[in-house]
Amino acid sequence: MNIKSISVFCGARSGNDRIFEESAYNLGKILAEQGIRLVYGGGGLGLMGAVATGALDHGGEVTGIIPEVLVDREMAHTGVQDMRIVKNMSIRKEQLIDEADAIVILPGGAGTMEEFFQVFVAGQIGIYQKPIAFVNTAGYYDSLFELFNTFIQHDFLEERFLELIRKVNRIEDVVEKLEHFTPVKGRTREDIEKGHSRN
């Protein structure tokens, strides 16, 4: 898969460990060095600001997408030339997804998870499929992957859909993992009925 643009979902906060911000900055640097356009939520603070600054400091192309209500609150990154101000969060999320060939998820909170689950559910249904990489900085997403296993154990998620996701421990490996993505057949009525028959 030839990846030309990546959307990064991440926190507008920095978290309580410097490694989160350092990892975000390094991701931006790597994307710039590989000629991959960064698409992100437009903020200048937290991990959002770090990933954008990492790309900009190394000559990368950056597109920010931020809703009107958050322009002041998240302090839109002043160094991003391609800053798109949209009406609301829903439009922001749609554009973040539409603009990218792949998705990278850094540590974040509820907003980051909302963005992820929209892409993940769309992949299961077969509306579209984009490879997703979780950057598992300091084991941040280990518990989420345990939750996925709980979904599978109780037949609320088919194991094959985990092929849409990569858990990556090293920033340097992110792009390579995404490039080796293979689409997964979307869920059908028959798949759901099979699950019912086992209950």
Automatic annotation (TrEMBL):
Looking up InterPro entries in the UniProt record yields: LOG (IPR005269), LOG_fam (IPR031100)
Q: Which UniProt keywords apply?
A: Cytokinin biosynthesis, Hydrolase
Q: Which GO terms describe its cellular component?
A: cytosol
Give the top-level enzyme category. hydrolase
Pfam families xref list: Lysine_decarbox
Q: Which GO terms describe its biological process?
A: cytokinin biosynthetic process
A Gene Ontology molecular function term of the record:
hydrolase activity, hydrolyzing N-glycosyl compounds
Q: Which SUPFAM superfamilies match?
A: MCP/YpsA-like
Enzyme Commission number(s) of this protein: 3.2.2.n1
Q: Which domain of life is it from?
A: Bacteria
Q: Which family does the entry's similarity section mention?
A: Belongs to the LOG family.
Q: What is this protein called?
A: Cytokinin riboside 5'-monophosphate phosphoribohydrolase
Q: Which organism is it from?
A: Phocicoccus schoeneichii
Query: Could you read off the lineage of the organism from its UniProt record?
Result: Bacteria, Bacillati, Bacillota, Bacilli, Bacillales
